[in-house]
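Thread: quick sanity check before group meeting

JM: Hey all, I'm pulling together slides for Thursday and realized we never actually wrote out the predicted structure for the chain we discussed last week. Dropping the sequence here so it's in one place. If anyone has concerns about the input, flag it before I start.
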Amino acid sequence: MLLIAATVALALLGCRSDDIGQPPAGTVFVSVRDSFFLPETVTVVMPGRSVRWTNGGAVYHTVVENSLLWQSNLLPPTYWFEVRFDSSGTFDYHCSQHPGMTGTVIVQ
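JM (edit): ok, ran it. Output follows.
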C-alpha cells in the first residue's frame, strides 16, 4: 500500500506540452481524444515504468483510476499527465468528464 501511495504522490502532476522533457526510458504513451483513449489498453512490460497521457483532443479531459489510486486534474488540449507504475496489476481508468471513455493499463 505504501508503494501505491508513493506512486500516487508522483502522479498528481499535469504538465503543459511545452513542459515536456525527455520522458523516462520505457514510457508508454496514450493519446486522449475527444471520445476515446488511443490505445484503449496498454501494457507496461515491467514495474517502474510510466504511462503518459497527452490530451490530443479539442476539449478538457481527465484520467482517473477507477478505484481512485491516482487521477489527473482537468487536462486542457496539449497538456499531459504521467503515472509511474511500481507494482504489477491491471488498472482500469476513465475520463470523469465523458461517460464511456475508458482504458486499461496492464503492468506485468
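AS: nice. The first strand starts at residue 14 and ends at 15. Residues 1-13 have pLDDT under 50 and may be disordered.
JM: adding both to the slides.
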